[in-house]
């Protein structure tokens, strides 16, 4: 079939909205086959490095929260487990968030520039001192730790050549002032872009049936599934759209904060300071 007869709108407690889909032809073709809803209603993200549980999706501040079951956890203490670094397909509209801080354990001091304390603790020292990880009192005692913000997945792979294990901490917003009211939690924040087109906007218009945007799995052409039988899927009626998303399609891309130079981790020609 070119498109599933039904586009599910949730997987367990997690809502599935555009641009994502868990059925054939649902959502945007840029995100096809990335999300999986298991028989037990567990949402998962498929990447080149594996399949990872998805804990949350935000569409207002577009991002997913995923976890790597093989990353270091509080219960591991000073023990390390064999782990492969998390990675994303660079051909997709997914990217690692700047809200992530990666902590690498038992790194080679000969190959890695060590930071004396986790850099994420510098954001809110009253919530996290230099010896405590979130939820893990004194977990760092007796073990070296290096905090590093990589530009991409390749940087994580590079660090894992010299460290025994790693974990990821992201910053969750609590209130209306996201830059000042955050707490660290374990997980990997993955940001995504929302492709917006006039055809999809018209399809979703409640006055015209409140449809669902999808695509033909063979041709990748736009298809719309409408709640009103009188509305024909895959067509656009003669409606004047003046000044709003003119053209075939416009990408809404979140502004990224200016990147800081790498002051610790593994130096390369791309990130070295001299």
TrEMBL record:
Its main location: membrane. The keyword Transmembrane helix applies. GO terms for molecular function: kinase activity; polysaccharide binding. The lineage of its organism: Eukaryota, Viridiplantae, Streptophyta, Embryophyta, Tracheophyta. Residues 7-68 form the Wall-associated receptor kinase galacturonan-binding domain. InterPro entries: WAK_GUB. It comes from Striga asiatica. It is found in: Membrane. GO terms for cellular component: membrane. It holds the Pfam family GUB_WAK_bind. Keywords: Kinase, Membrane, Signal, Transferase, Transmembrane, Transmembrane helix. This is Wall-associated kinase family protein.
């Amino acid at each position: 079939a070119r498109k599933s007869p039904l586009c599910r709108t949730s997987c367990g407690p997690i809502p599935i909205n555009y641009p994502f889909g868990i059925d054939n032809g649902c959502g945007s073709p840029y995100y096809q086959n990335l999300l999986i809803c298991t028989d037990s209603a567990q949402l998962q993200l498929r990447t080149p490095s594996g399949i990872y549980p998805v804990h949350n999706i935000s569409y207002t501040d577009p991002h997913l929260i995923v976890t790597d079951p093989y990353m270091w956890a509080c219960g591991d203490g000073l023990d390390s487990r064999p782990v492969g670094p998390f990675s994303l397909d660079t051909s997709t509209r997914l990217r690692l968030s700047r809200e992530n801080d990666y902590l690498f354990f038992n790194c080679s001091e000969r190959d890695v520039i060590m930071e004396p304390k986790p850099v994420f603790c510098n954001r809110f020292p009253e919530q996290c001192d230099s010896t405590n990880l979130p939820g893990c009192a004194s977990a760092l005692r007796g073990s070296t730790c290096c905090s590093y913000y990589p530009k991409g997945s390749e940087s994580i792979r590079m660090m894992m050549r010299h460290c025994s294990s790693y974990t990821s901490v992201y910053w969750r917003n609590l209130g209306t002032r996201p830059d000042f009211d955050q707490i660290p939690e374990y997980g990997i924040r993955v940001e995504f872009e929302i492709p917006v087109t006039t055809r999809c906007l018209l399809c979703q218009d409640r006055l015209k049936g409140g449809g669902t945007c999808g695509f033909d799995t063979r041709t990748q052409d736009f298809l719309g599934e409408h709640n009103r039988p009188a509305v024909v899927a895959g067509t656009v009626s003669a409606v004047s759209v003046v000044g709003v998303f003119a053209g075939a399609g416009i990408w809404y891309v979140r502004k990224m904060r200016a990147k800081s130079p790498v002051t610790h981790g593994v130096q390369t020609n791309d990130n070295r300071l001299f």
